[in-house]
Every structure is written in C-alpha cells, then in structure tokens.
Amino acid sequence: MDLLKGTLDVLIMKTVADRPAHGYAIARAILEQSGEALIVEEGALYPALRRLDKRGLLTAKWSKTDTGRDAKFYRLTTAGQRQLSKAVGDWDRYVEAMGLVLKGPQS
Amino acid sequence: MSDLTGRRPAPVSTDEDVERELRAHVALHAERLMREGIDPLEARERAKQAFGNYPAISRQCRNIAASPTPREAFASMLESILADTRFAWRTLRKSPAFLVTSVLTLALGIGANTAIFGIINGILLRPLPYNEPDRIVALWERTADGRDNSIAAANFWDWQAQTSLFESMALVPDHRFSGRTTVLGGSAPARVYAGAVTIDFFRTIGVEPFLGRTFGVEEAMEGVAPTLVVAYSVWRDLLGEVNDLTGVTLSMLGTEAAVIGVMPAGFNYPGQTQIWFPFELYPSNEHRTAHGKSAIARLRPDTTLEAAAAEIDAVGVALYEQFGEDTDAVGVNVYPLKEELVGDASRPLAILLGAAGLVLLVACTNLASGLLARGTRRSSEIALRAALGAGRARLVRQMFTESILLTTLGAVAGLVTAQFVTAALLRAAPGEVWRYATADLDIAVLAFTVLVAFATSLLFGLLPALRLTRKSDSEAMRAGTRSVAGGQGGRVWSALVVAEVALVVVLLIGCGLLIRSFQAVLDVDSGFQPAGVLTVDLEMPAENYSKHEEVAQFLDAAMTDLRTLPGVTDVGMINHLPLGGFGLNGAFEVEGREPQAGYGDYRVASAEYFSAMGIPLLDGRFFVDDDADGAEPVVIVNQTLARELFGQEPAVGKRIGSLANDNWVYGDDWMRIVGVIGDVRHRSLTRTSSREVYVHYLQRPMRARTSAITIRTDGDPAGLINVVRDRLTALDPQIPAELTPMRELVSASLHDRRFTVTVLGVFSLVGLLLASVGIYGVVSYAVARRQRDIGIRLALGAAPLRVRQEVIRDALTPVLIGLGVGVLGALALSRTLSSLLFEVAPTDPATFVSVAALLLATAVIACWLPARRSSKIDPIVTMRAD
Q1: Are B274 and B193 within 8 A, CB to CB?
Q2: Which of B188, B218, B263, B640 is most buried as measured by Cβ atoms within 10 A of its Cβ?
Q3: Confidence at residue B1, expressed as pLDDT on a 0 to 100 scale
Q4: What backbone phi and psi angles, to 5 degrees, belong to B183?
Q5: Where are the domains of chain B?
Q6: Cross-chain CB nearest to B25 (options A23, A54, A67)
Q7: What is the pLDDT, as a whole number, of residue B662?
Q8: Closest to A24 (Cβ–Cβ): which among B25, B54, B64?
Q9: Chain-chain contact of B67 with A54 (C-beta, under 8 angstroms)
C-alpha cells in the first residue's frame, strides 16, 4: 500500500517519539509496525528527515549504532511533540469522519 | 562583495554530512543482509537498489540542508532589508536637493489631499446626528417660477392635515431670517437665538433631550403655562448646569416660561437655535403670503421620498387652485434634509477637492521626473555594478528600496502636514456646513494618497533600472551618460512636462477666475458707506418694553445721548442692517391698482439712518422728526421700487398700503411716498437689490424693539465701542448689545468666498512652485545629458547664444503643448465654477491670458538658468570627461 500524501512526516515523528533512531531504523520500524503493509521507499525518507530537521521538529546527532557504526540519530523536539499530537488528533477525526461517511447512514 | 552581489558562501560541511548519512544507511542495510547470510558484494548491491535513485536523493537532501531555516530566512531577510535601507539612505543623502524636494513634494501632495478629502468626506458622507436621518425631509413652498420659498403657516396647517405619508411634520423658523432675542432670568441678560417650533418638532427630527422632556400635546393647549426647551449652551451658561429643572424659568418676549428640557450639546437645529418654544401658543399671521417659516417632516417608514413628495405637492397644487390670489405657492418642494443642509456648500467643497486632487497629480508628476532624472544620471553607476556581477534582481531591489524609503519619508511628512492643514482649515472655515466637520484624519483617504504616491515612485523609480539592466552590461557601460536617457526616455520626459504644465494651468485658471470674481465683489457699490460706521445690535426685552412709547423713548434717548459723543456726526437706527440677514418682506397694495400689486422688503428706520450710513437721497426728502406717530403715515422707497412700480412717473406723492406683515397689527392706512433713496445691497453684496420700503420707526415702534443703532464718526469706529457700551448700560443695564464696526460686518459677509479663494490660491501657488521646480529639473538634466554634444559643437565653432536658444527652444516645446492642453482643459472645466463666479465669465479672456503669461514667464526662468550653464560649457573639459 502506498502512503497517503503528507503522512510520511507523521509516521517519522511517531517512530522517533519515544527514543532516538537513525534513518535505516526508522524505515524498518515503519515497515514492521504496519505489519509490512506500508512500504516506504528508503531514499525518500531522507529529504523528509532533512525538512523536519529544518522546521525544528526533529533534531539530529551523530552517534554509534549497536554494531559500532556511525549513524545520524533523530530525536523529536518539543515543537515536534506538539506537532505530532496535533497531527494524531487531526488524523483520528479524519478517520472517524471518513468511517461515518463510508459506512453509510445507520438505522 | 557579498552585499553587492547577494551571493552568500555555502557552508562546506553540509554536503559531507549528507553523503555520510546516506552512505551509512546503505551500509546498515547491507550489514543486516549479511547477518542474514548474504555475501557482502550481493548485500551491498541489494541495499543500494533498495535505496532508490541515490544521486537524485543526495542532491535533494543537500539542497534542503543548504536552505535556511524559516527563522534564518526571516532574519536574513530583515538583515538584507535593513542593509538595503541603510544603503538607500546613504545614496539618497548624497543628493540632498533631490531628497528634500521629493519629500516636501510628497508632504504637500499627501498632506493637502488627506486633509481636504477627510474633512469633506466627513461633511458630505457622514449621516446627520439625528435618529434615522434618511427619513427626514425639508419642505418649501414652490413659487410660480419654480424656486423654493419660505413657508406661510396657513399653508403648512393644510399640508399637515391633508397628507398621510408623513409620520410627523413640524414648522420651524427659517433660520436665515432668525434674529436673536433678549432673555432675562438667567445668570445675566443674554441674546440668544430663539425659535418657535410646532410641538411635533423634536419627534420629527428624532433627538431625545439630555435632561427633562420636550413638548407634548398639552404644551400647545390654550391657557397652559408657557414652556421652553433650551440648548446645552443655555443650560451651561445661563442656568448654572442645574440638574433639577423644577421651578427653573427664563423670561423672553414678555413671557416667563418654565424650562422643561435641555437638548444635548451640539444640537441647535435649525441654524443656531438655542431656545425652542411652542409655536402654537402664540398668535401667528394667517396670511398665505406671510412667509418666513421653514418646515421639516419625517417620512413614514413604509413609504418613499417620491411618493410622499408627490402626495404633498398635490395638496399644494390644490391649495393654489382653491385660494388663487391669496397664495403665491403653486406647489410644495421636498428635499432630503442632508441635501438641504449640505447642498449649497457642496459645490465649493467639490472644487476644493478637485484642486487638492490636481495638486496631488502635480506632486506625482514632479516626483516621477525627479526619479527618472536621478535614475538616468546614475546609469553608469548601475552599469558598473551590473558589470561587477550584481544581478538584475538585486539592482532592481536596490532601486525599489530607495523608492519605498523616499515615499515612506514623504508619507510621514504628509501625515504631519495633514494634521496642520486640517487644523488650519477648520479654524479658518466658514459657514454652517463646516459645523459637521471634525478633525479626525480619514484613514482610508490617507491610505489612498499614500498608495498613489507609492505607485508613482515605484513606477518611475524602477523604470530606469529596468531599462538599463535589460541591455547587456557592456552595452550599458559603453552607453554611459550619453545616450541612455535619449530616445524613448526623452519622450517620457516631455510627456511629464506636458502633464505637469497642463494640470497647473487648470489650477491657476480656476484660481484666477475666483480671484477676479472676488475683486469684482469687493468693487461692488453696496449703496452705503461702511467706513466710519459703528453698529449696535440690540433688543429691548419685551418684559420691560411692551408699549410703543417705551420703545420709542429708549431709542430716542439713546440716539440723543450718543450724538453728544465727540467725533460722532450722525446717529440713526434701522431694524435690519444690510448684509445681516433677510429681514421682513411681503405684499402690499398700490393705490389705484389691483390688490397685492406690490411686493418688497420692508424695514423701519429713523430720520438720520440714511445720512449715518451714507445712503444718497435721489428724490423727495428723508424722514423728519415730525413724521411721528399720529402724523400722516409716510414711507421712503428705493430706486428699484420706484422704477419698477412707477416707471417714468415720479414715485414721490404716490400712496401704498396694507403691508402684509403689518396690517394685522397696525391696520391698513395708505402711506405716502415722501422720498426715493439709492439701492442698498441688503441681502448680500452679490445680489442686486429688491424693492424696499422704509417706514419711520416712530410709526411702527414695536418693529423697532429689535434694531441696530448706526453711529457715523470722523474717527475709528472701533475706538467708540467701550464708551458707547457704557452710555447704553447707563440707560438700561438689561439690554445686551453687540457692537461691531460696519466694515467688519461687510467683511464677514464675504467670509465663505474669501475662504475658498484663499485655499484655492494656496493650492495654485503650491502647484506653480512644484511645476517650476519640475521644469527646472528636467531642463537642467537635459543640459547635463547633452553636455558632450554641446561641447563638441562649441569646439567646432557654434555660437554660444545659438546653443542656448536651442536648449531653451527644446525645453519650451513641451511647456507650450502643456499650456495648450491646460487651456483646453480649463475651458472644459471652468463651467463647474459658474455658481462661484461673480461678473466674470468662465472663459474670461483676461484670466486665461494672464495665467498663460505667468506660466510662460515661470517656465522661461526655470529654463534660463540651466541653459545659461550650457553655453558656458568648456569643450575640452567635457570631452576629457569620458
């Protein structure tokens, strides 16, 4: 299933919400947690990460992975947390509204 | 270099950072695949494939990383705007003449417009401060020739009874005829404007009292105690601002009346009314030609102005059919109250608006040519910077900043100017209608004028920059100062000069016509000699002067006493001074003719009035002291009446009688004409005299209770004011009097006209000044531009005089075209001035010729100075300059 436009940013923010992660880990996490239903084109992740960084929603730091490699770890900023909870709320309302319409009038 | 070219060095580390991150991703993926048992080469290959288009993504990331964050972008924008502004300010400061001229030009254009537009908008557009003012109308009787006439009460009663589309209707005094009345019982005797209104007045105009109540039906009942409603100013000045009106009374017209209400501050309708009393309580003249009243009415909410006007007009027409001879109203005219109050004033206001608009246009034209000249003069600087790598956008932005800065300075200066101009106008402004003006600045108008200025400065500030940067750098460099502004540029120049001259010519011709009219008004023979005359406007309170003898006695005593003052030669009295309002008028009989054969103004005067005012006797005699009460009734008439009623026959010896205003008080005896005097301009200096009848005051003493004593002196009449006041106070301290030299009254009657002429004159001068600065600038620039040509020609032996003539000829061509356009424009527009002109045609050749001459002279001087410089050019210097 392809991603809906504009949802990649939310997925990324959600993924790094609890603990910092590097790009590859983020891509894996999205794939795994969606039950392999959402496929993120790996390369496309990076421009999105860079943009979120620019907007001050994420912040990045070079660090070592478990296997001792250098990787850039992203973490959610306070502004990012605000943005994420707003996006989640919007999404819930959207889904609810869509559901109501798609299910049709209930008797 | 960076602030010249706008390029900032890119940080080195970002690209590397992106590369490292993307490579790390591929490595991490491969590492995972290898852990699943895939051999390293294969794993790397698959990881790369999974990543997608590596170079494209890498480029994308690098771009994003290199771009500033929103905050950085904002900060750098601010920084560069500040830098641009500082740079622009430095550049502008290098040409202080240009800076000061432009800012002043804008200040005048924006300031004058904001002030005038703001005030006039306030007057013309703001609704009247009454409840639902759109439903209030003014009513007038219509004369046989279609003009409005003031109303006779008898007609009004019928209109009120026979119409159904009006919610209410009220008779009010025609404030043009209103005089002041002495009021006693307040903190001091005072003269106030008092008006009889029918009890529905306050309901009709829709204003609630500030304190107490207004008239109800009971106030109009016969035998009821008389009541008054007073204006805020009376309550404040005479009643000590009491909060409880119980027991508060004022005495006026011989009657003590209870004050039942106080109207809010600023409410003085009609005119300057300060006390309202019920019309119904007092006997009124029921002749259908006894004019002098005015009326307002409130439309029912469910009707239209047209329907109501048609209904009441039909009533008026029917009344005319019914009463024929007895009425001179053939119908009823109805106008919205707003139009009624503002109508007459709107023409001069519109003309001031037009003049202010022209000044703004001239200012913009001037600004345009200034910017254009400056831009072209800087062409080599611009070309140099372009060659050094400054982008076109960067250069245009620089010019843009300069224009914005310049206009902002001008707008701020304009705002300050507007405040001053508004205050000055309101202080000097005449007339009823200006009472509706306020000093609030009109933000919409300010925004509009500032926008116009911005548009002009941007257009003409950027034009040179755009034109220059369009060419390739080297071409512009080579062109240098010589040819960049030639060709197309020259045409823009000429067009600006043509426009500027044309606008100023229109302005000057309008102003010239008004000045000539004003001169003509000043030259009018008023029929009297105001110099050396002091007037004393007074009213004997009816309480103490209810008998004929009392009035006559006071006036006689006062005049006798004043005659003994040193320097005084004549002392007389009249009930209505010239130029002080309309006075009484009405129909009368002429012996041996049809009834109502005569109609005219009517005044009472004493024997010495005519000599005191310097009015000449043309036939017969003046009044004498023997023409007193009981002697044969006599009248003096003016030349116009004698000519119109009796033609070649002598008027002296004829008899007239039954003055419509008087016969219900004084009976209708025949009165013999004993003298004919010269015409006096009673209503205004610009209106020819009507027929006038003067009756000796001793035969009509009650008409003289309100009157003016006129004192002619050898010396300065103003010097007499204190001693005359003391003498009158000694005779009766209860008579408030107002002492004014007659000259001042004449001057005050011209206030409106003088105001319009002054404002227009100032605008025209400003316009002329701006235009001459503009022309000077254009020609100086043209000379500077052709310096090389001229230098070469002089080197080749051309006569300096010839060169100079040529420069002037070139410069004057657009001036002459502009003059032609302006004259045509003025011919088309000057008709709109007709109502303000007096004995001057809108196409008055003298005005047109003098304006053309003035403008040409100014233009020649403006051209001469730079042209003189041209012939002094040293060929060697100019040719070396390149």
Answers
A1: yes
A2: B263
A3: 38
A4: -120, 130
A5: 2-67, 147-329, 343-522+751-880, 545-733
A6: A23
A7: 64
A8: B25
A9: yes
Cα(B446)–Cα(B140) distance, rounded to whole angstroms?
A: 39
The predicted pLDDT at position B871 comes to 67
Closest chain B C-alpha to A43 CA, distance in angstroms: 5
| Cis ω for the linkage preceding B270 (within 30 of 0) | yes
Contact criterion met (CB below 8 Å) for B412 and B251: no
Query: What are B39's two structure tokens?
Result: 């051999």
Please list the ranges in chain B whose pLDDT falls under 70: 1-12, 177-178, 343-345, 390, 429-442, 464-465, 467-490, 581-583, 595-597, 658-668, 870-871, 873-882
In B, residues 38-57, which contact A (CB 8 Å cutoff)? 50-54, 56-57
Greatest CA separation for chain A: 60
- Chain A residue with CA closest to B14: the answer is A50
Are B329 and B142 in contact by the 8 Å Cβ rule? The answer is yes
- Say which DSSP state B401 is in: H
Rounded to whole angstroms, the maximal C-alpha distance in chain B is 147
User: How many CB atoms are located within 10 Å of the residue B465 CB?
Assistant: 23
- Looking at per-residue confidence, does A2 or B593 come out higher? B593
By the 8 A CB rule, do B341 and B432 touch?
A: yes
The SS3 of residue B865 is: helix
Place of tokens 């070649």: B648
Task: Read off the pLDDT of residues A33-85 as tens digits, 9 standing for 90 and up.
Answer: 877 777 667 888 898 899 898 888 999 889 888 888 889 999 999 999 999 99
Residue B136: predicted pLDDT? 93
Which domains does chain A carry?
7-103 (1.10.10.10)
Q: Which residue from A41, A47, A56 is facing B60, i.e. has the nearest CB? A: A47
Q: Are B844 and B760 a contacting pair, CB within 8 Å?
A: no
CA neighbor of B369 nearest in space, from B780, B90, B88: B780
Q: Which residues on A lie below 8 Å from B71 (Cβ)?
A: 56
Collapsing DSSP to helix, strand or coil, B400 comes out as helix
Identify the burial level of B489 via C-beta atoms within 10 angstroms of its C-beta, where 0-12 means exposed, 13-18 middle and 19 or more buried. buried
- The minimum CA-CA distance between A35 and chain B, rounded to whole Å, is 19
Q: What is the pLDDT of residue B438?
A: 62
CA B817 – CA B859 distance, rounded (Å):
12
Which tokens hold the place of B450? 């500032």
Residues of chain B neighbouring A23 (CB-CB closer than 8 A): 21, 24-25
As a whole number of angstroms, the distance between CA B361 and CA B398 comes to 26
Helices assigned H by DSSP within A34-77: 45-54
Residue of A nearest to B52 (CA): A43
Helix, strand or coil, per DSSP, at residue B129: coil
